[in-house]
Structure formats: C-alpha cells, structure tokens
Write a structure and sequence with these properties.
The chain is α+β, with helices and mostly antiparallel strands.
C-alpha cells in the first residue's frame, strides 16, 4: 500500500492511501448505473419547491389539478406540467372519475420519504 504525501489543501487526506478492502466492499453494494440514474431522477423530483408542495398536499388526500392549482395559486397548466414529471418518476398516480382526473401519491414510501425530509430540515 503506497503512501504519497499530497499538498492539495483542506478537507482532503494528508496522505494518499487507498483502503482496498473498503473500496472492494463498497463496489459490491454499489447499485448499477441504471438504478442510480433512476434514483437520481427520483430525488430530482424533491428538488423543486412546487413539486414538494404538490407532494405535501397529496400526502393528505387525493386532489385534482383544479384543486392543486387553487391551493398553490398557480395555473392548471403549470400544475399539469409538474404532475407529468412526478408521474414519470413514479411519485404520483392518477385515476379518472367522469371528467375529473385525481392524483395521489403512488405508495406509502413517498409519504415516508417526504415526512422524513421535512423533519430533517426542521431539526436544529
């Protein structure tokens, strides 16, 4: 195991030293590129304030586009655009009843992730 002195600055190791066993173990559990790409898109959905507000509302009950637009003070078009993205990454699902389309969270995992994220940012 070669050790090479590095002078690259703060927050770096002072010596270059690869912990081979640790790297091998991490490599074993590392998800595939396909999985990490899908997870990246999933988490990207939580990076937008409007989408977070929509998800928070849907965590309480299913709502139609008109309901969400009224709640957030936005146009139906803007809400539909966000819902399309949320549906693509499988965070929300829809059902049609007559002429109305209702949206809800896909499953309880989404509600849990949302609640934990909100709890985390409120901790001091």
């Amino acid at each position: 195991m070669a050790r090479i002195k590095q002078n690259s600055g703060a927050e770096c190791c002072e010596e270059y030293c690869v912990h081979v066993q640790a790297v091998q173990q991490a490599r074993i559990v590392m998800p595939s590129d396909e999985i990490t790409s899908a997870a990246s898109d999933f988490f990207k959905a939580f990076s937008d304030k409007t989408r977070l507000r929509i998800l928070t509302a849907l965590a309480e009950q299913e709502l139609c586009v008109c309901d969400i637009a009224t709640l957030l003070g936005m146009t139906q078009s803007a809400i539909s655009h966000q819902l399309r993205f949320l549906k693509q990454v499988r965070l929300v699902k829809s059902r049609k009843s007559g002429k109305t389309v209702y949206y809800a969270l896909c499953d309880s995992h989404i509600k849990t992730i949302l609640a934990q994220g909100m709890e985390h940012v409120q901790e001091r």
